[in-house]
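This part of the workshop introduces the protein records we will be handling. An example says more than a description, so a record of this kind follows:
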Amino acid sequence: MAMVTVNLRAVTSWVGIARLFAIVLSCIAFSLVASTGEYKSPYGTWCMFTWCFCFAVTLVVLVLELLELYPALPISWDDFTSAFSMLAALMVFTTSVVYPSTSIGSPCSSHCAQKAVATTASCLCFLAYALEVGLTRAKPGDISSFLSTVPGLLKVFEVYVACLIFSLLDSYASEAGLQWCVAVYSICFIVTFLIIIFTIGRCLAYIPCPLEKMLVGYNALALVMYITATVLWPLYSFKDSKRPNPCNSECAWNKHLGVTFLTIFNLIAYLVDLVYSTRMVFIRTPS
């Protein structure tokens, strides 16, 4: 009969403690918001999904590490946990900004205390995930877990920002320049997402080419493509277009502005990614 091993370090280490805090704080956040019953708007639904998703996956991760069951999974566990903690930090950070700005009016009209505590819990939950990212990030020169390195974490950031861009895309079929920008977002998203999936699934080793140099080449190409999108998107989006008054969160002008800033964020991410990847591949530290 197989014996189940209990690894108490999974909950007593700093990483384990950070995960415990994330579980408790995300549970508090979605429980309080659920008690108000005011979460059925698209933004409220997104916030509830984020807290519930992060709570559930973190709990599963903690249980698998506590019972030492994760080695039986056909994935790179360190890459998976690093990618998830980065994704969770980004999702909870977004939720911590979106929820109070869309659900708490000025002045607040109902369930003010619950909403305020839920927002505070969400902000603290983000700090817990950010702490986990910091604790599990690979040390300089250590590439045993690619997604825990700076380029690996940036891959998760790039994919997440691309998802935010897709959520804001509205009208772009009228201009060829905007269509090119959407193609840039889509191509870079697909390739970067596949890199993450192949890394977690331990499939990159089967690619018959110098993988590290190929990633550097891809980062350079993605950077050039995002430079064109950074120029073309605002050029065609705001050409002969003034901001209407009033212009709320559903206003196309505001969405185009959001895409502009997110494009700049991803441009910077790909630039930093290229610099770090180049250093890891071509600049070796003396042993």
Observations:
- The mean pLDDT is 87.
- The chain has two domains: 1-144, 149-286.
- DSSP finds nine helices and no strands in the chain.
